[in-house]
Design goal:
single chain; 256 residues; alpha/beta; Rossmann fold; 7-stranded mixed sheet; 7 strands; 24% strand
Length: 256
Amino acid sequence: MFDWGVGEYERTAAELEPAARHVVALAELEAGETVLDLACGTGNAALLAAAAGARATGLDAAERLIEVARSRPGGDRVEFVVGDALELPFADGAFDVVLSVFGIIFVPDAARGLEEVRRVLRPRGRALLAVWMPHGPIHEMVGALARGAAAAGGPQRPRFDWHDPDAVAPLATAAGMTTRVQDASLVVEGESPEAYLAAAERFHPMSIAMRALLDRSGRYPEIRAEALAALRAGNEDPGGFRITSPYRVISLTRAG
């Protein structure tokens, strides 16, 4: 795992806020419900849940991102906690709702992650997890960098197929939860594909970590060209930059 506190992930978090709004809307929160934003980053979903009248908590392993979340407007209405998604520092049944917007997908043990979600949910509590679909220009860009980093000696741990209901359902069933899914998409806009990639190189924790490996291998220029080609190919605005990234919301309900 790399350090999500490196760079300025808050820039990416701002791009992801519409997805957080979508997930919170799907949760149909009621005033006073207890909500956990799991792997909350800068707190998008937690802040939205608190604004909707929930008693919200946000947890993330990156201390700097938790500090950013606390400093945002409304941050004083949320309990932000530094912690591990695989060892949640909360009592059994502590929450009515667990939300995770592109966060739980990075845990190294999917089964344990889902078991922790079930543990902290009350009976008949619900969880909504936003996960990326494995296609689209951002996926292709990240894939090019990840393949290059792996070839340069980086980690090659297989990623769990969070987007695949056939992969998630058995783990959810084993954890005592039912599953359903809903598809959606996120539009990201910017100045140009070149500017978008340059910002990722400078600010995104994943890009920073992978570039360090690729620079040492001497292959960064060719891998970068492949990543940029993916963004250009998927660009929907010839006069600027607009891409659509598909994602899926997995809704889980704990048995009574």
